[in-house]
Each structure stands twice: as structure tokens, then as C-alpha cells.
Amino acid sequence: MNNPDESTIQRWLKGELEGNELKQMEAWAEENATELEAKMGWDALGDEIAQALPSEQEPPYADFFNERVKHHAVELVETPPATKASPLWKRFNWILAPTAVAGMVFCFYLGTRIDQETTAIEQSVAVLEEVYTPASGVHSEVIISGDSTVIVLDGLDEIPDALDIVSGETGQGLSPRMMVKTERESFYF
Amino acid sequence: MGAVASESAGNGGDGPTDQVLVQRAQSGDYRAFDQLVTRHRGKVYAMIVNMIHNDADAWDLAQDAFVKAWKALPKFEHRAQFSTWLFRISHNVVYDWMRKKKVMSEGELDDQMLDSSRIDSAAPTAPKIPARPDEQLVQNERRAEIEKALSQLSDEHRETILLREVQGMEYTEIADIMECSKGTVMSRLFYARKKLQTLLKP
Q: Which residues form the RNA polymerase sigma factor 70 region 4 type domain (chain B) (predicted)?
């Protein structure tokens, strides 16, 4: 390539050259780096930057820096990657699944035992209290056990099959959800 | 040109060469690697500080680069100089960090990296050559101007300038570190220089 003109150099600097033109320009630049640098009139500013910014600077607490590197590096050595499991351990991999199943069965059994015991405790600590209910003929029972309180309402009307709790619309008046909404609106206005 | 680009022995004249230390470290001798850390930590730390303008993060990242180097040492095949290889690792560590930082602060302006007025003129990055107070003041002002101009370049352009003008590396070394062609290095370098000339025009 002959000496490129100023506009070609500018297009190259802006990354606008492509294909053959780019290859030729890069080849020329590599061969004529010194000439190009002189052409750009860079020397003085380059020296100024080199003087202003340090090429080498000790990190603060240099000894501690080395110690930290060592600490992390040694950790890496002592903790082999997970893929390098010992062959002996691999040989007993098959035991994992049955052990897990046995553990689950044992936990289930334990759970049933604890549930039975808890029921017994709940029954023993149940406290009967009266709770006001708007409907007549409804019997209420309050069971307190530890931090939990359960209120049992006996004697309520059956919930009709047509009731759609999610949509809020029923064939028999407002659904509980709509009622709550209506109550809330009337509360605020 | 700033510092000497690459010492062929990599030892500054004292002690065993980088190559010898690397071979010893590759065979598991951590003391040899510790010597390499001591020898190169100044350049690696300075380069990272100049890139990100944050001493504390630069300290962590430089450390991270050396730990990664230790981990990857068995793969080092002496095709490039140890210092070039180490700078490539540092380059990757810094770019990963900047990428994560950009993702985390998407849309936020990182004024710490852009606002030169926040750069403490008494920071350890200041030149170590003692100067008269008035000269020091002028130097610090010019340095702040240069850092501000550099911060207006893209990461790639800034890194190319730092590697070439401050670390004094050859085009091929920079290409190796930044994993791009020599032509790309030259075009980035000349573009960055042109822009800096405009920004630093008296």
C-alpha cells in the first residue's frame, strides 16, 4: 500500500475501514509505526502521560498483600476441585439413594408419632371460650395450644356448590370476597 | 515512553529470572511464586489503579489476579513472558469486575470513576519524585487533567494507552494481553491519542 492519505487514516482510527482496505491499512501501519507516530505528533504528550502516571506502585501493606495471596492460593491447593472425588468414595455412591429413602421413611414415622403426641397435648391444653358469632345456633370453640389458636365454628350453613370464591359472583348473592370488598368500601366512605 | 517495557530476564538484575522462578513455582514451590508476587505486584497494582481509580478495589483485584495466576500456573507454557501473561490475567480480572459493576449500577453514573475532582492529589498514586511545592502543585494539576481525559476514553482505549505509554509495552505484547490483533491495538492507540490530544489541548 502506498502512503495512505489523511482521510483514510481518519477512517481507520474511527473503525470505518473494512475488508481489503482495512487489511492494507493495518499492514502499512505495522510497517510504518514510527512514521505514523511522528505524523500524529504524539511524542510530547506521550512523555507527559508517562511522567504523570506511575508505571509501578507498591500496593499498600505490601507484606500483608503477599500474605493474603498466599492464604487464598494455599486454600486452593488444599481444597481440591469437587470433580476430583476419591475413587473410594465413588465406589460407595450407590448407597446414597437407599440411605436417603430410609431417612425419609424414618422421618415420616417420627412425624406421625410426634403428631399423635401433639394431638394429645392439644386436647389436654384446650381451653373453651365463648366467641361472638352473628348467626344464631352457631357453637364456637377456641383451642389454644402454645402459640397457636384454633377457632372451631359448629352449626354454620353449608357452603353452596354454586359459590365461586375466586370470581366473587354467585347465583345466591355476594360471595365472601365481594362482601369483604363491600364492607371495606363502606368502611372508608 | 514511560517504563521499560519488558525486562528480558524479568528480574531487574537481581536474583533468579522469572523463568527460573516460574519453573520452580510450577513444581509446587510457593516461595518461588511469592518472589514473583513481590517482583510484579507494583506493576500490576499500578496498572489496575490507573484503570479503575480506586485504591481499595485495585488492591483486591491485584490480589485476585495473582491468585488466578497461581491457579493457572500449571498451564503456563512460557510462550509469552510471565509479565505479559500476568497482565493478561489482570486484564481479564479487571474487565470481569467492570462488567459486574456496570450490571449492578445500570443507569447510575459512577462519579468516582469520572469526576477527577474526587481524586485525592495526595493519594498514593501521586508521583514519588520529590518536587518543590509549587512544582508539585502544577504536576498534580496536570496529572488530574490527564486522568480526567483518560477517564473520558472507553475502557479499551484507556487500557491501550496505559499499556503502551505508561507500561511501555510493545504492540504485540498489548495484542497478546488484550486478545486482539496488532492492527486493532494500533488503531485503538492512535484513536485514543488523537482524542487525548484534543482533550488536553492547552
A: 144-196
